[in-house]
Structures are given as C-alpha cells and as structure tokens.
Amino acid sequence: MKDAEFAGLSLEGRFDLAYNAAHALCLAALRRRGYRSTNRYIVFQLLPHTLGLGPEVWRVLAKCHDVRNLGEYEGDFNVDERLVADLIAACRKVAERLESLPPL
C-alpha cells in the first residue's frame, strides 16, 4: 500500500494495518532465528535480540500492543495521530532492519 492510500484510511484503520504489519515483521525476525511464539507481545520484547533494535522501537510496539488489546477485549480503542505516526515509524525501522539482514 502506498503512503497516499494509507493516509486516506481512518486513524483506526492505519493503526490496525501498521500494528499487524509490525507484528508480522517481528514474528518473521523471531522465526528467522529459529524460534516460535504464540504470545504476540514477546515478538516485540525480543527485538533487541532478533534485530538489534533498542527500546525506542520495541517500547512503541509494546504500547501499541496494549492499546490494541484494550480495543479488542475491552472496547476501549484510544489512538491518536502521534501514536499512529510513532507506530508507523517503528514498523519502518523493523522492516528496514529485517531487509538489511543477509540471506539465510
């Protein structure tokens, strides 16, 4: 999806797409190391070990995980432009780092 198309979505839609993309990328990084996880949160916490990314990335993703859970399980979906922008930036950092890894 191009940035212009992405920007045309609702705030919640952008959050959902970016969160799911970030999770999929972090899960790919974990699996690349030979591990599996059924816990969605753990893939974010392990970013320092799987991709060498620091707390400036994984803490954003962990916060978004908490926001997602509140929305999914308690109906309290509270996102703002800043959180979505931070999520997209963190997702891009994960994607860039994953793409920069040598082939297996």
Principal-axis shape equals globular
Give the structural class.
Answer: mainly alpha
Mean pLDDT: 92
Strand content: under 5%
Number of domains: 1
Intertermini distance: 27 Å
Main β sheet profile? none
Helix fraction bin: over 70%
Helical stretch tally: 6
H and E order: HHHHHH
Counting copies of identical and different chains, the oligomeric state is: single chain
**Rg, nearest Å:** 14 Å
Total E-strand runs:
0
Instruction: List segments where confidence is low: pLDDT < 50 over at least 5 consecutive residues.
Output: none
Element layout with pairings:
Blueprint: H1 3-7, H2 11-32, H3 42-45, H4 47-50, H5 55-74, H6 81-100
Task: Offer a concise description of the structure.
The protein is an all-alpha fold. The protein has helices at about 5, 10-30, 40-45, 45-50, 55-75, 80-100.
Entry keywords:
mainly alpha; 104 residues; single chain
Report what the structure shows:
The protein is mainly alpha-helical. It has one domain. Helices cover 72% and strands 0% of the residues. The chain is built from six helices and no strands. Helix 2 (11-32) packs across helix 5 (55-74) and helix 2 packs parallel to helix 6. The protein is globular. It starts with a helix and ends with a helix. The relative contact order is 0.17.
